[in-house]
Amino acid sequence: xxxxxxxxxxxxxxxxxxxxxxxxxxxxxxxxxxxxxxxxxxxxxxxxxxxxxxxxxxxxxxxxxxxxxxxxxxxxxxxxxxxxxxxxxxxxxxxxxxxxxxxxxxxxxxxxxxxxxxxxxxxxxxxxxxxxxxxxxxxxxxxxxxxxxxxxxxxxxx
Amino acid sequence: xxxxxxxxxxxxxxxxxxxxxxxxxxxxxxxxxxxxxxxxxxxxxxxxxxxxxxxxxxxxxxxxxxxxxxxxxxxxxxxxxxxxxxxxxxxxxxxxxxxxxxxxxxxxxxxxxxxxxxxxxxxxxxxxxxxxxxxxxxxxxxxxxxxxxxxxxxxxxx
DNA sequence: TCTGAAATAGACCTCGG
DNA sequence: CCGAGGTCTATTTCAGA
Lengths: 158, 158
What we know:
Chains A, B: It comes from Roseateles depolymerans. Chains A, B: This is Transcriptional regulator. The structure is a homodimer. Chain A contains 5 helices and 5 strands, in the order αααββαββαβ. By secondary structure, chain A is of the alpha+beta class. Chain A folds into 2 domains: 3-48, Winged helix-like DNA-binding domain superfamily/Winged helix DNA-binding domain (Arc Repressor Mutant, subunit A); 62-141, Alpha-Beta Plaits (2-Layer Sandwich), CATH 3.30.70.920. In chain A, strand 3 and strand 4 form a beta hairpin. The interface between A and B is large, with 69 and 69 residues. The structure holds a DNA duplex.
């Protein structure tokens, strides 16, 4: 893996592609002031370097009936590797869990879960605690999603 | 907007496209057992119905130097609409904030922020509290991202 | 060596059956 | 509803700087 140096044109391309990956090469080229060929090569390099990992379709949460977001803060008192592996496997097998972090501080793990309603959340909750022994689980419901973007800020480029 | 009924083939298509939107129609068609034309029509309909909202490029967090994730829990004691509008505008203008929810319970708002390091987070923090009067701000750092997916679970389809 | 224009290949999308 | 062909786009090649 080479030292990926990204200049301002790469940055512009990423900015555009993070918002809409369907744009045509010629179109992008015009926006960044490059020939189509050159632009195509840039995008190719960004993919090969692993800067762009992949391209995905985003789906409307309400339209697939998972409008409810729940954050689940988990604390444990069993800090063994065995416990962790089991917990991790449990969580990864639950498709309703879309994010899963190991945290510093008070809470040990934080999960973001998407479900249709509270009843469905209860099912997920049961699956979670069935897998492993948890010390404390605290669920917070999101009332409204005010911002959600997959576009990362590009002001800190290497 | 028509009542979007999604059958098991739509579900399969969404499942595939949520993971990789670059797959070719003929390829998808083979996987779901449809003719290319029919498959193309399905995907088209999913887009027109707004089930698929758009297609984006996902970028490697480490490669663009925002490897650190911070969750910011915000509490306020100024529950006016004017305050909210100001806060919302402040938050939306900060590209480091990638998620922003209004919560029930103890915490009023939850933000997910991505930055290169703690110093950079401090800058974001300052921008946050500069915009509006906040009662309490509590930051938790993620040590490790164990799971992150943009793919929603499709077991609750309408 | 690098650029960009033009050829090629291949996928999308439309249309007739 | 299906497949075949026309059209458009990505990709490669190649001549020139």
